[in-house]
TrEMBL record:
GO cellular component entries: chloroplast
Pfam families linked to this entry: DUF3458_C
Organism encoding this protein: Vicia faba
InterPro entries: Peptidase_M1_pepN, Peptidase_M1_pepN_C, Peptidase_M1_pepN_C_sf
Protein's recorded name: Peptidase M1 alanyl aminopeptidase C-terminal domain-containing protein
Domain (Peptidase M1 alanyl aminopeptidase C-terminal) ranges: 1-186
A GO MF label: zinc ion binding
Taxonomy, superkingdom: Eukaryota
Length: 187
């Protein structure tokens, strides 16, 4: 187990260089994996980079594991926590994925919770991550106020960021608070 864990960490470090040789190595590991854990680890190495094969490998993994509810949740979370530039758009597209359901808290925690748990795209200087989360919180509040409450907590650290981000996050909080019919959970 220790050797496999070390191999997986090394693969992730190598693949983070966005060098074609290391991407090929991660792809080879993905293709030759003998179990889902090894395959998922190789997939994670590929998914963290904006390489050409990223979408194809993600689609292949989904095709293989689409009938396993927990694995699909991991697949959503993996994409949500990616540091690739513009990942907000990828997460937005996943909201329309046939197996994603905004009414399912586990799916929401995997995709939306994963996205807001990683600062790179959620706290992007353009504020798009905050705007996305503000809209999602308002949608969730009408579906499941408890889940919306948990998601709005992503804004709880807004004062720790620079002035630009503080203004953008605060604007979304104001938008949420000014919404008609907002549940007590979110307030």
């Amino acid at each position: 187990m220790s050797r496999r864990a070390l191999k997986n960490v090394a693969l992730a470090y190598l693949a983070s260089h966005e060098d074609q040789e290391f991407t090929d190595l991660a792809l080879q590991e993905y293709k030759t994996a003998t179990n889902m854990t090894e395959q998922f680890t190789a997939l994670a190495s590929i998914a963290q980079n904006p390489v050409k094969i990223r979408d194809d490998v993600l689609a292949d993994f989904y095709d293989k594991w689409q009938n396993d509810y927990l694995v699909v949740n991991k697949w959503f979370a993996l994409q949500a926590v990616s540091d690739i530039p513009g990942n907000v758009e990828n997460v937005q597209k996943l909201l329309s994925h046939p197996t994603f359901d905004l009414h399912n808290p586990n799916k929401v925690y995997s995709l939306i919770g994963g996205f807001c748990g990683l600062p790179v795209n959620f706290h992007a200087k353009d504020g798009f991550g905050y705007e996305f989360m503000g809209d999602i919180v308002l949608q969730l509040d009408k579906i499941n106020p408890q889940v919306a409450s948990r998601m709005v907590s992503a804004f709880s650290r807004w004062k720790r960021y620079d002035e630009t981000r503080q203004k953008l996050a605060k604007a979304q909080l104001k938008k949420i608070l000014s919404s008609n019919g907002l549940s007590k959970n979110v307030v």
